[in-house]
Amino acid sequence: MNASGLPALAASVLLAPLFLGVINRTKAAFAGRVGQPLFQVYFDLAKLIRKGAVYSRTTTWVFLLSPLVSLAATLVALLLLPQGGFPAALAFPGDFLLLIFVLATARFLSVIAALDVGSSFEGMGASREAAFSALAEPVLLLCLAVAAREAGRDSLTGIIGSVTGADWQRAGPALVLVAASLFAVLLAENARIPVDDPNTHLELTMIHEVMILDHGGPDLALLLYGSALKLWVMAALLAGFLLPGRTGSLVLDGLVFLAGMFTLAVAIGVVESTIARLRLHRVPQFLVGAGAFAVMALALIMR
Amino acid sequence: MRVLLDTAMVLLVFTNLRLLGLSRINASIRTVAAQGVLLGLVALASHAGAWNARILLIAAVGIAIKGVAFPLLLFRALRAAKIRREVEPFLGYIPSVLAGVAAFLLSLGIAARLPLPGRPPSDLIVPTALTTMLVGLLVIVSRKKALSQALGYLVFENGIYVFGVGVAYEAPALVEMGVLLDVFVAVFVMGIIVFHIAREFDSIDTTRLATLKE
């Protein structure tokens, strides 16, 4: 356990909902609206926490467990992630495998909770989520493998932030491929356009949203916060990987990292505003394309 | 310059993969046009610092023909054929993309073992050239529409062009121009043939030509 990573941890726990707010404001600006307040997600969370929850008689303890485990797993993922100049709270060889594993655990729980409800719509969403994440996960693994190979290290603390300007000179194309691939996985894993639409409430097309239809009150708050945190984790992976070099000053590194994160939020907003959502049967193609990028990057780096 | 050239090579491979994953033919034509423009830039980048009239002419004519003239000809043929997309290719889109990645890996392997006269300006030129040729051949054999097959032929020729840039970059301008002219005529003729097939049979699906047994 490395205590010097705690400030970054606290910052991400606090700022994760703001990240969603920035995305929403960017989308609103593109649509010509003023949009919701930047801190709307915080207000939503506060409102949901105060509410009571209603549980269907069909549900069992699995349904109650899912929001808790999803949030807990995402917090564990956050522990493993170095951010800015701050080291990860937990670091050991091969910890990027654990990161992928805890994210998969969170997803597994939300899938079985969706099935537990007994609603046919939720079952549909669960099967889609399972199918698409089965394609996204190997791509994420490949990307991290490329990053590990490029850095020559086996722990996220060594992998993230080790890319220097010289590396961009030497292996620029491969790094761009990995970054594009990671970005695609980020969009797919966090239910963003073009894979899923976080705002849709049309039962036949939702993926993530349909799985949490029956959660309410504090449970929904946990799920909402968990998904904001997951988006933060994936974005921090990408931002940490892309930003070259370290200045040595923790404050400066932290600020550069935060600037990178919120630039990424704007980029996600721009992508969501300018790209149409893919039809469901095109999503595997999108993910296979991302996988193709990752394989090419691996081949270029192993060469 | 090497980074620039490497980036161009990765972009070329990307256009190849994109072509393999596309079903709409107008998007495919645009992709091949982008590839043509990229090739002109590759010719310029690989001779950076030593530009002369020959290089500039080859790049300019290449971009004009591959980036402007071919798309115009092919779009005209597309309008005449009244089709929008490739329907049910022999190899589906996802397997095609995977095959494209496999072709890239294979090309990297071959290029590492290929004895070459001199050192190409970028290590990626030969793998990219081989990948582009393989993808061109794949498109020719796996797609059913005559227009898609013409695009495959163009991509194959682009691959040979990249190979020329990397390996035989002292080839005389006359040869380069001759090749460009040949390709131009070929695409011109293909456009006319597609038009005639479409008018005669109301379809440019080449599998239907097998039924012409008389």
Considering the chains and any ligands shown, give keywords for the structure.
heterodimer; A: 303 residues; mainly alpha; globular; B: mainly alpha; 7 helices; 0% strand
Structure description:
- The complex is a heterodimer of chains A (303) and B (214).
- With 303 residues, chain A is an all-alpha fold.
- Chain A is built from eleven helices and no strands.
- Chain B has helices at 2-21, 25-46, 53-81, 93-113, 125-142, 146-167, 173-201.
- The A-B interface holds A 169, 172-174, 176-177, 284-285, 288-289, 292, 295-296, 299-300, 303 and B 3, 6-7, 9-10, 13, 17, 21, 93-94, 97-98, 100-101, 104-105, 108, 112, 123-124.
Average pLDDT rating of chain A: 90
Gross morphology of chain A: globular
Low-confidence stretches of chain A: none
Please tally the β strands of chain B and state the result.
0
Strand residues, percent of chain B? under 5%
Estimated structural class of chain A: mainly alpha
Find the count of extended strands of chain A (DSSP E, 2+ residues). 0
Name the poorly predicted regions of chain B.
Answer: none
Alpha carbon gyration radius of chain B: 17 Å
Backbone shape of chain B: globular
The DSSP helix count of chain A reads 11
Strand count, sense and closure of the main sheet of chain B?
none
Brief characterization of the structure:
The complex is a heterodimer of chains A (303) and B (214). Chain A has 11 helices and no strands.
Write the layout of secondary structure elements.
The complex is a heterodimer of chains A (303) and B (214).
Chain A: H1 6-31, H2 40-50, H3 61-79, H4 95-117, H5 120-151, H6 156-159, H7 165-189, H8 208-211, H9 217-242, H10 250-274, H11 283-302
Chain B: H1 2-21, H2 25-46, H3 53-81, H4 93-113, H5 125-142, H6 146-167, H7 173-201
Helix pairs in contact in B: 1-2, 1-4, 1-5, 2-3, 2-6, 3-7, 4-5, 5-6, 6-7
